[in-house]
Predict the 3D structure of the following.
Amino acid sequence: MHEVLETEMGIDISYSSLSRLLRSQHIATSLPKHRRKEHRSRKAMEHFGELVQLDASRFDWFSDGAYSYLHAAIDDATNEVLGLYFTKEESLEAYSELIFQTNQAYGLPLALYTDGRTIFFYDSKTKHKLSLEEQLAGVEENMPQFARACKSTGITLKRAHSAQAKGLVERLWASFQNRLPKDFLRMDIHTMDQANAFFPRFIASWNRKHAHDPANPVLFFAPKWPSNLLELHFATQEKRKLSNGFTFAFQGKKYSIPDPSCPARPGDILTVAFSKSCPVQVIFEGHSYKVVEFIKTSSPAPKMTQSELAKKRSDYGRMGRQASPFRKNLPQPAQSS
């Protein structure tokens, strides 16, 4: 309420005065007070961009009984919220969108701190571990799409083994679950698309009040990537083999590569990349190529049925025999008297 009065209504009142005013009107805080549990605290990072915490929270954000997931990225050194994004389910698309928002504003972080969900990590107990022979042969380790994208863009993925380890983003959910539903009611926001469009303004306002300077002013963000190249890395990637007809099958369709400079030949393994923001493309030998859907041309439909065609051929045959020069009428022999 203090922030809304100050930023949206221009009312300058101290936090303590507002608190006393509310208590005098018997208006209690909606946040219950809990005794904090003692646990070992992890020291925050010193550099902006050194470690970014990622997480998602399922909650009735729009107060309509329809639960959805809010995904968030927050910097460990500054408490600055770097990205927010709504989807119906926790998804690769949403976490990739957080990376896109962070890259657009600052660049790519040095490391990400996440829980052990399969979007980020496969269970080490069931995952196939590469033997020495497989490693020497160049066999790549099987990993989730998000982990593969982080590795290819130079982002280190770190696993938090408890909720307390990433307490910064966990405390953020307590604040957002109390704050955002009220903001959505005030702003007449009722859909995820409306909320996603509102977030840039909300993040700027939130960070002005809650973010702080890092202990060390040196930035650890990598230079910004071109958006189309970053989207290609974070797209879902699958392997396909090029057929003898220079086509490949993907999601029930056939595609071909119209670019003649592509060196791929029948039998070569292609990497097919696709996502909501990235159309179907092919990656081969470190280069990406556009593809087109291959549509087989069908023979023209016959203009007449088989019985009609057979009758017409028969008629033409009889006409041909009658018109043959070898069937001229020979002179009749003279009859004797």
In short: The first strand starts at residue 52 and ends at 59. The chain has nine helices and twelve strands. The CA atoms of residues 115 and 160 lie 5 Å apart. Residues 167-186 form the longest helix (20 residues).
